[in-house]
Design brief:
The complex is a heterodimer of chains A (about 220) and B (about 900). Chain A contains seven helices and ten strands. Chain A is an alpha/beta fold and about 220 residues long. Chain A has one domain: Rossmann fold (3-Layer(aba) Sandwich), CATH 3.40.50. Chain A has a six-stranded mixed β-sheet, sandwiched between helices. In chain A, strands 2-1-4-5 form a four-stranded antiparallel β-sheet, with helices on one face. In chain A, β9 and β10 form a beta hairpin. In chain A, α3 runs parallel beside α5. The longest helix of chain A is centred in the last third of the chain and has 17 residues. Chain B is of the alpha+beta class and about 900 residues long. Chain B folds into four domains: about 210 residues, no CATH class; about 200 residues, no CATH class; about 200 residues, no CATH class; about 190 residues, no CATH class. Chain B has 27 helices and 22 strands. In chain B, strands 1, 2, 3, 4, 5, 6, 7, 8, 9 and 10 form a ten-stranded mixed β-sheet that branches. A six-stranded mixed beta barrel of chain B has the order 13-15-20-17-19-18. In chain B, α14 packs across α26 and α15 crosses α26. The chains are: A alpha/beta (about 220), B alpha+beta (about 900). At the A-B interface, α2 and α3 of A face α1, α10, α11 and α13 of B.
């Protein structure tokens, strides 16, 4: 069963002369448990694609279906709630809440949803990602790699349908990149997660089960 | 939303709250200042309301809710047990002195228990109330001074007074005394109940007058509402009624303390006062809104990334709104109490300043919880209004924009012309354009204070002493003290000997005015009587009134007020039409007195007489009383109290005069009392025809170099509290004017000061947040070669543009709005002359420009110094 389906996804920025087709009809599917890498050069439309997949931005036309739900039929508030239940994000710049400590950051999506966290599961994630000794630290006191591991833990915490990773290693040196990526892959397998990762780095993309290439807003 | 969800929102809210220390300090200060403004308004308002009530109570002579009057002992014992009555007091009226030295005072000799004494403001400040079975008495200092007795406990004093028509002379031992309150009508001598009984027995008092020897019960209920109903309910329960004697002899007289009728205060609040109050409240809300909104707006703009991030991970708009609302709550909880405390202090000071300018209100400070609840509520509403829009803005932040937002990046502008290349000034201007709403609001907020200051200055300067003193038409006026109290229709004549004494002073030139307000009538048409009285009375009352007036042919005999003026005074009268020379020459001429308002505009139809009209004045020597139904004439000594009667002139003289002029009699030399048509005559004619020569007042001018001397003489002669006479002079009026102007200056400058602090705070916040948000950008600028000096120059330019724009806007506003405001102000204050002035703006301008330069520099160094440490941590 496909957990993620896009249908003729288009996004146009601006109008008239300055019209830019960031996405020009994208169709693909991701199966449950798959680790897919989306590769493209700067300006190819891959970030726009990720925003659409995560429901952060609305497409000009076309649809995205996550776990059987066509997400753009939802209103903004509903979409937000859907996002925190079904989609985990990992960003290039980590995007941790600076005023909350590591543990609070990890629990945030679950708590925002009003659910009580599955303590055993959370503990497992924390240990898998090697964060047990850092739980009380504020994000600013962590290295880049550590921050990204917190972001991965946060993405996993709500047991989402898919995890979207946007250049997760973009700010990291190559050794740390390898570590983080391995962890991402391992945890994905361990917790049966579907992962869609965007990157411009071919070497990193090769770690995925499948690679989708995007050029000028189309799948190549 | 369930509980655990609330918990994380609270956690997020408090965590991000703690991270915004500077914003919090500035916001708390802003909320506190706003609360100060509200609290001052509430304190002054409530204190004045309270003072007004207290004045009423003192005028009424007590603050008990009401009472039952003229009871028998049995009735008293029966009623006092009623459960509606919370507390009661007992009083037995004994008598009143009438002869020297009390001919001008209202003094009551009575027994009062402790409750009644307290409620009537007659608790001894020295000594105590009289003990039963002794010859003790307590009274006030005025009675003692009239008796010529030193206020020493144990001194004896003797008084002669009337008890139910019988005269008695009694000696008492002073056991306590209190200060005399000028507002209170009656003075009291309190004696023991046992002594009243002795006096009644000795004189065989029956209580023929219906008052003496009876018991009065003053009562307090649970609260001041439904006083009259409660009194009637109590009576009904015991089988009595208060309708009237004709309803049966179970009648008991009741009294309601009208000081409690809350309508009294509301009545005195006319619509314009209420509108002014609303306007002031809105101004304060606006002042607070300008800064609190700006702070939140800036804070949200700078935290767009933070909110966007929360959005990305799934925080809903509602949750984000809650985060901001909670911060607003926290900030209010810190700022409002501080504002209440400071505001109450300032309010107490202001109350003193304002009340000293008002007659008839005693200076009291209200501690009503309404002050604090009201001010807190208004402040909170202001905060709530202010953070509404920023809250919505934060809730609407799109997660995508959030990921890359910096201040101003969201603008639609795609490119800017840049042929000239970058200059410091152009960069500064561009920076101000990044967050236009911030720039505009900060400038308005700063301008606001200057506008208030300037208006205050224009007001205080525009109060025109010459206009104000226009009604002060003679240097001095002296008369019996009662003349200067409004509502005294026929003051005691000012003695001729005193006039002679004043006339003998060096450099003085003046004239007398004689008075006649009773037993003088004019013959006028019924139509005019109806018109004259119809203004203030119902048609039924006018009908009854007209019926009462004697008919003379087609005309009616209506009361008239006459002035007999010597030439000096006549010369002071503003003549509307005709001339006064005929009055001075003697002969049968009068001038009709027309009424004008404060602005000198003639009231249409304020007098029926036109130039050349004939008027018949009837001087009445003796009236007779008759039954209007049967025509029966009553005897001169007959008791008329239970009969229908009317009066008419029996012995009189009619004189016909020609109206030679229409004049105005300015307030200072008029009867100061409006009751009937008025005519002015020459002094000689007046004395010849009226047969009276009672002096209303003596008015005089004084040579300039003698003014000080004469003022001193007058002060000695008529200035003291114990003098029978009183006077007004140009100088006392000038002082009154000055203190009025001072009040305005103080209140206005106070307001401008606080609003100014708000404006500067707003400016500080705008600059500080602008610099903090651009920390990284500065590093970039410096890395491409901008020197620290250039950076400073850019920041100073930004600050100066803020300050400069405020000054320019204020100038434009003042110059454009001035003429508009002048009409409003001249309408509000009749002694106001509008002069455009921008002096305060120009005086404030350098201060603003200095702040505009200094604040950015200090802020920059503060931020940079801090960030040396923090930069390392902010690896993000």
């Amino acid at each position: 069963m496909s957990i993620l389906v896009t249908h003729d996804l288009k996004k146009v920025y601006g109008s008239g002369e300055s019209e830019v087709h960031a996405l020009a009809g994208v169709n693909f599917q991701v199966e449950k448990g798959e680790f897919v890498a989306v590769v493209g050069t700067s300006g190819s439309g891959k970030s726009t694609l990720l925003h659409m997949l995560g429901g952060l931005d609305r497409p000009t036309s076309g649809s995205v279906t996550v776990d059987g739900k066509e997400i753009f039929t939802l209103k903004d508030e509903e979409l937000t709630i859907f996002r925190r239940r079904k989609i985990g994000f990992v960003f290039q710049n980590y995007n941790l809440v600076p005023v909350l400590n590591v543990y609070e950051n990890i629990l945030l999506p679950v708590q925002l949803d009003g659910g009580s966290p599955d303590q055993g599961y959370i503990k497992e994630i924390i240990e898998t990602l090697g964060l047990a000794s850092k739980l009380n630290n504020l994000p600013n006191n962590l290295s880049g790699g550590q921050q990204q591991r917190v972001a991965i833990a946060r993405a996993l915490a709500s047991k989402p349908a898919i995890i979207l990773a946007d250049e997760p290693t973009g700010n990291l040196d190559s050794r740390t990149s390898q570590d983080v990526l391995s962890l991402l892959k391992v945890t994905g397998q361990k917790f049966l997660q579907t992962i869609v990762m965007i990157t411009h780095n071919e070497a990193i993309a090769q770690m995925a089960d499948r690679v989708i290439r995007i050029e000028d807003g189309r799948i190549a | 939303m369930n509980v655990s969800n609330r918990k994380i929102i609270r956690r997020l809210s408090i965590a991000s709250f703690k991270a915004a220390k500077i914003r919090n300090i500035i916001t708390v200060a802003a909320i506190a200042l706003t609360t100060v403004l509200f609290t001052v308004i509430f304190t002054v308002g409530m204190s004045m309301k309270y003072g007004f009530e207290q004045s009423n109570f003192r005028m009424v002579g007590g603050y008990s809710h009401g009472g039952f009057k003229y009871l028998t002992k049995e009735q008293f014992e029966e009623l006092k047990t009623d459960p509606l009555i919370k507390e009661y007091g007992k009083r037995i009226f004994c008598g009143m002195p009438e002869k020297e030295p009390f001919q001008k005072s209202h003094v009551e000799v009575s027994y009062c228990d402790a409750n009644t004494a307290k409620w009537m403001f007659v608790e001894p400040k020295e000594g105590r109330l009289p003990k039963e079975g002794t010859n003790e008495a307590a009274t006030d200092l005025r009675v003692l001074s009239l008796l010529g007795v030193e206020p020493v406990i144990g001194n004896e004093f003797t008084m002669t007074f009337m008890v139910d028509g019988e005269e008695t002379t009694e000696t008492f031992t002073l056991c306590g005394y209190w200060d005399y309150d000028e507002i209170t009508v009656a003075n009291h001598v309190l004696i023991p109940e046992s002594r009243t009984q002795e006096i009644f027995e000795k004189l065989g008092t029956q209580g023929k007058d219906g008052m003496t020897s009876f018991w009065n019960m003053d009562v307090m209920f649970k609260n001041a509402s439904h006083i009259e109903e409660n009194l009637d309910t109590i009576l009904a329960r015991h089988g009595y009624q208060s309708e009237g004697l004709d309803q049966g002899d179970n009648y008991i007289h009741t009294g309601v303390n009208w000081g409690y009728m809350s309508a009294q205060f509301e009545d005195s609040l006319d619509i314009s006062t209420i509108l002014a109050l609303i306007a002031v409240m809105l101004l304060i809300i606006f002042t607070g809104y300008l800064i609190i909104y700006n702070i939140f707006q800036i804070s949200v703009s700078n935290d767009v990334r933070f909110y966007g991030l929360l959005k990305t991970i799934g925080t809903t708009g509602r949750q984000i709104k809650r985060i901001i609302s909670m911060q607003a709550f926290l900030l209010s909880a810190l700022g409002i109490p501080v504002g209440l405390a400071v505001g109450y202090g300032v309010g107490v000071l202001m109350t003193g300043v304002v009340v000293s300018q008002l007659n008839g209100i005693v200076l009291t400070y209200s501690v009503s919880p309404i002050i604090f609840l009201g001010a807190a509520a208004f402040s909170f509403v202001t905060v709530w209004l202010s953070c509404r829009k920023p809250r919505t803005m934060a809730a609407k932040i799109s997660p995508v924009e959030a990921v890359r937002y910096t201040e101003g990046a969201g603008t639609k502008k795609k490119s800017r012309k840049g042929e000239k290349g970058a200059s410091i000034f152009r960069m500064a201007m561009a920076n101000l354009g990044r967050n236009k709403s911030k720039t505009v609001i900060t400038v308005i907020s700063m301008s606001f204070a200057v506008v208030i200051l300037n208006i205050t200055f224009i007001l205080a300067n525009g109060f025109d002493m010459d206009k104000y003193l226009k009604h002060v038409i003679t240097d001095f006026i002296i008369a019996d003290a009662s003349y200067f109290q409004t509502g005294s229709p026929e003051p005691t004549s000012f003695p001729e000997e005193s006039v002679s004494q004043i006339e003998a002073l060096d450099g003085v030139k003046g004239g007398r005015t004689y008075q006649k307000t009773f037993a003088a009538q004019e013959l006028v048409t019924e139509e005019w009587v109806r018109k004259l009285n119809g203004k203030y009375n119902s048609p039924e009352m006018v009908d009854r009134y007209v019926e009462m007036l004697e008919k003379v042919g087609d005309l009616r005999a209506e009361r008239v007020q006459l002035y007999g003026m010597e030439d000096f005074v006549l010369d002071k009268l503003p003549v509307i039409e005709g001339d006064l020379s005929k009055l001075k020459e003697g002969g049968n001429y009068v001038a009709a007195v027309c009424v004008t308002d404060d602005y000198g505009n003639l009231h249409e139809d304020s007098h029926w007489a036109k130039l050349g009209d004939k008027v018949t004045i009837r001087y009445v020597e003796e009236y007779e009383y008759y039954n209007p139904e049967t025509g029966e004439i009553y005897g001169a000594d007959e008791d008329l109290s239970d009969k229908r009667w009317q009066d008419r002139a029996k012995v009189y003289e009619d004189k016909v005069y020609e109206v030679a002029a229409l004049v105005e009699v300015p307030g200072m030399i008029s009867y100061r009392y409006y009751g009937a048509d008025e005519f002015v005559m020459g002094a000689d004619t007046f004395i010849r025809d009226s047969g009276t020569s009672d002096i209303l007042y003596y008015a005089f001018d004084c040579e300039d170099d003698k003014v000080e001397q004469v003022e001193q003489w007058m002060q000695d002669f008529a200035g003291g509290d114990n003098s029978l006479y009183d006077y007004e002079s140009r100088k006392t009026e000038e002082e009154e004017f000055d203190s009025f102007r001072r009040m305005f200056t103080m209140v206005g400058s106070g307001a401008a000061l606080i609003v100014g602090m708000v404006g500067i705070l707003n400016f500080l916040n705008a600059i500080l947040t602008g610099i903090m948000a651009r920390k990284r950008e500065f590093v970039v600028l410096q890395s491409v070669g901008m020197t620290g000096k250039q950076l400073n120059r850019m920041l100073i330019t930004e600050g100066m543009v803020f300050a400069g724009s405020s000054v320019v806007i204020t100038l434009i506003l003042t110059i454009v709005m001035g003429p508009l405001a002048s009409d409003v102000l001249e309408g509000m204050f009749w002694f106001f002359s509008y002069h455009l002035t921008v002096t305060p703006i120009l005086a404030v301008a350098p201060v603003f420009l200095l702040l505009g330069a200094v604040i950015p520099i200090i802020s920059y160094h503060y931020v940079i110094k801090r960030s040396v440490v923090e930069r390392l941590r902010e690896a993000e």
